[in-house]
Amino acid sequence: MAAALGWTTGRAAAAMAELEQLALVRPSSEDPGQMRLINPELGLEALLLRQERELLARQEAMAATRLSITRMLAEYGEEDPGSEPAGARQFMGMDAIGSQIERYAHSCTSDISVFAPRGAQTEEALESARPLDRAALSRGVRLRYVYLESLRNDPATLSYAQWLDENGGHVRTVPHLPLRMIIYDRRTAIVPIDPEAAAKGVLILNGTGVVTALCTLFDQIWQRAEPLGTPAGRPRPDGDRPTSQEQAVLELLVAGYTDEVVARKLGISVRTGRRITAELMNRLQARSRFQAGALATARGWLTPQAEARPEP
Known about the structure:
By secondary structure, the protein is of the alpha+beta class. It has helices spanning 2-5, 9-21, 40-76, 94-107, 123-138, 155-166, 208-224, 244-254, 259-266, 270-284, 289-298, and strands at residues 25-27, 35-37, 87-92, 111-116, 142-148, 170-174, 181-184, 188-192, 201-206, 226-227. An 8-stranded mixed β-sheet has the order 3-9-8-7-4-5-6-10, with helices on both faces. The protein has a two-stranded antiparallel sheet with strand order 1-2. The protein is elongated. 21% of the residues are buried. The model is unreliable at 305-312 (pLDDT under 50).
């Protein structure tokens, strides 16, 4: 057979095995070791019936899966996000938080606004965000991210921000962000229960008043943020005034925060934060941080602080 077809013996044997599997040939009862042809009409009919049975089994499996998913969603309470009543709901743990972010990312239709503090983002966070952001951009959703200026110190985070910018997203940077936050369609916001430990849990906020206030906060910071390609900490037009990063350091120091907290809020190292502080004190010719704050306020670099807010 191989010789007649111009095939190798192995190819002919493989073809015969496949024909036997399709019930188009079967072993001969008269000549052991040989195969005999089954009536093609009977063999093809048997093959068709088998495929119909397999298709029916797949359809039944799909129907069962659909029913299971419907029951699961009903038990989980996955109602339409747009129909949720005003109020706040609390979710604890990274798995629960991730599920809620996925849910709202898939259901949003117009706008996603993100505050991403702490500078460098974890590899796990970036990999989790990429498919959600890609899907949102493909649907025409306006995607806006505000990162810290210090993201430039982390290649992975910078690469992700550039990917967003190149694929239709909008990315800006500021020296300091008040909290981690995501707003979907300007009607639902996800914020951490504890801004200093976002992984502990989140609040999902729905309702005109509170979400409108958060949207206003986002818009204000967005307006004064710099596009991604702007050099970090560039001097202000009037020359002697501090850069945006230096002013952020001053504001946090005057508010009573420690070097460690200042560094964490700006996404920089403690050593870098202390270097910036020392340079500012030298420029102001201040002998103490308190005096530096007073001199900076006198020069118009800062607005007067009514009360310091030291953090443990």
